[in-house]
Every structure is written in structure tokens, then in C-alpha cells.
Amino acid sequence: MEIKFCSNCGGNMKQGIPHGDDHMRAICTQCGFIHYLNPKVVVGCIPQWGDKILMCKRNIEPGKGKWTLPAGYLENGETMEAGAARETLEETRGMVNITGPCRLFNIPHVNQIYMMFRAELTSREFGPTPESTHVQLFQKEEIPWDNIAFSVIHKTLKDFFSEKHRGSHSFEIKTMEAPLPHG
Amino acid sequence: MEIKFCSNCGGNMKQGIPHGDDHMRAICTQCGFIHYLNPKVVVGCIPQWGDKILMCKRNIEPGKGKWTLPAGYLENGETMEAGAARETLEETRGMVNITGPCRLFNIPHVNQIYMMFRAELTSREFGPTPESTHVQLFQKEEIPWDNIAFSVIHKTLKDFFSEKHRGSHSFEIKTMEAPLPHG
User: Fold this and answer.
1) B38 vs chain A: nearest CA distance in angstroms?
2) Are A8 and A28 in contact (CB under 8 A)?
3) Source organism's superkingdom (chains A, B) (predicted)?
4) Does residue B154 lie within any of the structural domains?
């Protein structure tokens, strides 16, 4: 998102390095207000029901028509755990208890941090929502591995099942690199 | 930070709930642009040198004159580990290797997520900077516990030393509540 006008006074912006700073920022030519752009936090979870996990088929871009885990932007005033449970409710109508941290991803090329939790569905109630055309429980072998919306979700699921196979869960921080250009 | 003018077209803003959303947002009355405000990520570390840790005395508000661990806002395009090392360099002139995650804090009342890492100084070189009047190594008993700038830093240090005493480090997510009003 480019900042063309100052949100404080409506003035025109210029790019520059403020005094004492070492990054280029959008600075207002009129009132001097500095606009900082920082990474956003995405929170989500792996909702478990017995040996199955709950996934949703996206009804919105990006990744429309592909499968994902419930996840979305953390809101102001919200804990990460509350945000992950809220996104799960919004995208799947499923209620979860967040049981622990699973993976934290740096995704620097899109200015995002992804925090994925392990979670347990509190009942077998779930279903489609404005954001998801299908919401479905999958055993590991049933997961549509070739039709997953985001590489960070693919990685989360692979790690989750390999730890589950090993019989112990851990927490790790990983970095997703920008995909190589085609051609 | 209140959004008074649209950063896209300079138009006046109104508060409202966009279609398909359930949160109040700042919406442009002229071009319809929606401005989202999301939590910011602060990254920092506990720089270790033998049995001592490196702290800095703040030269800027908030908490000017009080002691803290090096930490600051994660920048776009940066991993959390790189951000923590950069902040350490900027605030203490010390170079660190990030060795692992220590604590992740929800601080919902100030719309922040704090990620604190364990780290090791790569040399004994450090010193004051524009952001820190003093930079100093402390053994646990020497830490100015009553003069620490932020409760999240106090908690990080308490947890770190209690785990060190136990002989094993873990990772945990915690939530800092708003302080009770005085009086």
C-alpha cells in the first residue's frame, strides 16, 4: 500500500530518512508526520477432531477454490490465541480450544508473520461461511495436498503430521523464502 | 494514531463496518478505501556474555533513564531474528547470534506483540548509542530490578533467570494485562 496523502493533515507525502532513523519512510511535506509501515501478524490454527483436522476451501482471493487452514490478520486489542479462535469461527463456524503454539513463520517478502497454533474442536459443528465454500474434516491421507492455497499452510501441515507421527510436538520458528520466478 | 485523511486520495474519513466485516474501520468518504490498523511486532533479545546479560539505559521516551533489553519494531522485509539483532546493534553496538525463542507476549491493550529471543554476544564490544546513555553487562544480582522500563522486559528477565536456574530453557506465550489504574 503506497501512502500518497498524510492521514494526519491530508498533505502530500515525500520519501526520506527521518533524523535518527536509517530507513526510508513516507514523511508529510506539510506537517512532518512520519508514516511507518510494519509487518502484519496472521494467526491461525490446526483444528483437530480425533485423528482428523478441519480445513476450508477458500471463497475469496487470494487462493480462491483452494484449501487452507483457518487463519487471518490479528486485530488490535486481541491476543494471538483469541485471534486464531475468532478466525476459525469466522471461516469454518467451528469452535476451538487453542492448545499450544505450533509454528511461527517469517515471511519477509510479503511483510507478514504467521503464528499457527494447535487446537481442538470443541464439537463436531462446522460448515460453510461467506469466506469458505466447503469446510471438511480430513485424515492425513485425505488432505488435498496438491490444492493448498499457501505454501506456509502446506509447510505447517507437513510439520504437524511429521511431529504427530514422531509422537511429540515442538515449537519452531521458520522463514519462508520468496518463490523463484517462473520460466 | 487516528486516521483523519485518506492516504490514498486525501479525502475525509468516517468510521463504519465495511460489507462482510465485523469491526469498525476508518473508511474514506471519497474513494471508499478502508484503512486497517493492526498490532505491531516488537522484537528483542537477552544478549548473554558468560553468566552476564547486556542491558541498556534508555535515552529516549518512553522509559527514559530506565533500563531495558534491546528491542524495537520489526521492519518490513525483515525476519524477527534479523530485527532483534539489528535493534541490539542500534541500541548497544553489540553484535549477537540469536540462539532461540524465549518468550512471546500478547500486549493487547497497546496493540503489540513482543518476541524476545535468547542471544549470545559475539564479542565484548558494546557501548552507548543515541538511544542508550549506558550499556552494561549485569549478573543476575546486579540487575537494577526496580528501575526497568517496561513490565514485559521485567517479566522476560524473571522468566529467563528462573529457567536458567532450573537448567533448561523453554518457549512460552504469555499475555500482559493492562496495569491497574492508580489510586
Assistant:
1) 5
2) yes
3) Bacteria
4) yes
